[in-house]
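**User:** My hope is that you can spare some time for a protein that puzzles me. I have put the entry right below:
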Amino acid sequence: MFKRLRPDAGESVTLFIDGKPWSASANDSVAAALLASGLDHCRTSGVSGTARGPYCMMGVCFDCLVTIDGAGNAQACLVRVRDGMHVEIQRGRRELGR
C-alpha cells in the first residue's frame, strides 16, 4: 500500500508501535512509519468504532490521531519519529489533557 520513493533514505530509528519494535527512517513522520509498517489504521472512531488511517498527511483532517509517549490526540503526520518513541493506536474517544 505504501512505498517509499527513496528506500535508502538514511539512518534508521527504532520505535514501538503498540509495544512491538519497528524500524523507521529517521526522516519519517509517525504516520509514514505506521503506513510503512503495514498498519492500515492508526485510530478508531469514537462514534462508530470504524478504523481511520492517515489521509491528508499535512495536519488538516485529524484522521491520524495517535498516542505518543503517553500523550493522546497527537497528529501522527506532523510528528517526526525518534529513537525509542512509543506510539499507541488510539481506540475510541480520548479526552484532551489525558
User: Anything to note?
Assistant: The chain has a mean pLDDT of 86.
